[in-house]
Amino acid sequence: MSTMSSARNATWRNWGGNVSARPAREVAPASVEELAAAVRRAAEDGLKVKAVGTGHSFTSIAATDGVLIRPRLLTGIRAIDREAMTVTVEAGTPLKRLNAALAREGLSLTNMGDIMEQTVSGATSTGTHGTGRESASIAAQIKGLELVTADGSVLTCSAEENPAVFAAARIGLGALGVVTAITFAVEPLFLLTAREEPMPFDRVVAEFDELWAENEHFEFYWFPHTGNTNTKRNNRSAGPEQPVGRLAGWFEDEFLSNGVFQVAQWAGRAAPATVPAIARISSRALSARTYTDIPYKVFTSPRRVRFVEMEYAVPRAALVDTLRELKAMVDRSGLRVSFPVEVRTAPADDITLSTASGRDSAYIAVHMFRGTPYQAYFTAAERVFTAHEGRPHWGKVHTRDAEYFSRVYPRFTEFTALRDRLDPERLFQNDYLRRVLGA
């Protein structure tokens, strides 16, 4: 008996609140077979198909007026192979559940992003990444995946089996099919020592190459309207484990970084003229601290203040110039930017449409508080990023199209040709994919 649920005409909204859709129906398949049946039925009914996880993308990549697949019943670990050091996990599994389950088994992913609310398939399909000198995005840690294609068949893909599909589907944008399971490389659980420290903007950009070279994972936040940043350096440690104390963690990560920051954002939205003063106070609110813990407790942090985000990957060698241009633009524009700018890095990888495909990359993310007009800021920032051949994050706000991507991705036509083969009738099409991949 089928356990697949179906709902009709419910409005779906993303986490950021800037995208909504009204699908003809929603389905929550409880097995790969049920998902494949839902895909075949949609094709018979003349409806498009999109899958969505927790809705943490700020683009309409998952929006559809057809069939919306919710993989909330496709969760959990299928298998752990300690000889191969891999874990195979169902596509709808939230990263936070995977991280906790791996830790209980004495295992960990090598690198991860700074939040873990997304599903594994949603995070990888859009190119979610953290920061790393040698360790790359979550998708770059994939060793195999399972994919339901437009005809309802199930493909298993790896470097050895269906390698062309594997090369593209690790960051497939939902354009090649519906991912149902992912096999990740894992390693024995390790410790990271995090050193968080305020630092002047001018010093960070002057010493960026050294800071990057000296640390396994380096990132920083610049507070617009100030010359201040907060830096974070994560490096492997022999221990001992010295986590942030419960009270100190609550005060800095919840009270200051979420509670007080939320109030500051409300104030800035209500009275934009106060934003520079608020930024100066916010940039000095967090003090230096050092702690040692298991990876997901160091890499990730709670994000309860809702926002809208644009992020571009530029060549790592162009980062300092890009940042200086961005700062000069904000300083002269009259814009009031209440959210810090986040800067991270990633090494080159071999994934067809990865933002780091074929080049060492640096990521610059600009944000605005939910409900605050963001278009003028993002438009001006995007001009800076695209002047350096920036590649936008697939799940974050941007205005680029297929013509632009064909210039900045050398393997773009390789991806579109594969899409033509796997989905010639465009069952997985929506307005976003039409814009970024072409018809």
Overall helicity: 25-40%
- Terminal Cα span: 39 Å
Largest sheet: 8 strands, antiparallel
**Rg estimate, integer Å:** 21 Å
Describe how the helices and strands are arranged.
Elements lengths: L4 E3 L4 E2 L6 E2 L3 E4 L3 H14 L3 E3 L15 E3 L7 E5 L4 E5 L4 H10 L2 E2 L11 H6 L16 E7 L5 E5 L4 H7 L8 E8 L1 E2 L2 E10 H6 L1 H7 L2 E6 L5 E10 L8 H25 L4 H8 L6 E5 L1 H5 L7 E9 L3 H15 L7 E6 L14 E9 L5 H12 L4 E2 L9 H7 L3 H11 L8 H7 L2
Parallel strand pairs: 4-6, 5-6
Antiparallel strand pairs: 1-4, 2-3, 7-8, 8-12, 9-13, 10-11, 10-12, 14-16, 14-17, 15-16, 15-19, 18-20, 18-21, 19-20
Helix pairs in contact: 10-11
Highlighted features:
21 strands, globular, single chain
Describe the protein's architecture and organization.
With 439 residues, the chain is an alpha+beta fold. The mean pLDDT is 94. The chain is built from 14 helices and 21 strands. The longest helix has 25 residues, at 246-270. Helix 10 (319-333) packs antiparallel against helix 11 (375-386). 45% of the residues are buried. An eight-stranded antiparallel beta sheet has the order 17-14-16-15-19-20-18-21. The two termini are 39 Å apart. The protein has helices at 32-45, 95-104, 120-125, 163-169, 201-206, 208-214, 246-270, 275-282, 295-299, 319-333, 375-386, 402-408, 412-422, 431-437; strands at residues 5-7, 12-13, 20-21, 25-28, 49-51, 67-69, 77-81, 86-90, 107-108, 142-148, 154-158, 178-185, 187-188, 191-200, 217-222, 228-237, 289-293, 307-315, 341-346, 361-369, 391-392.
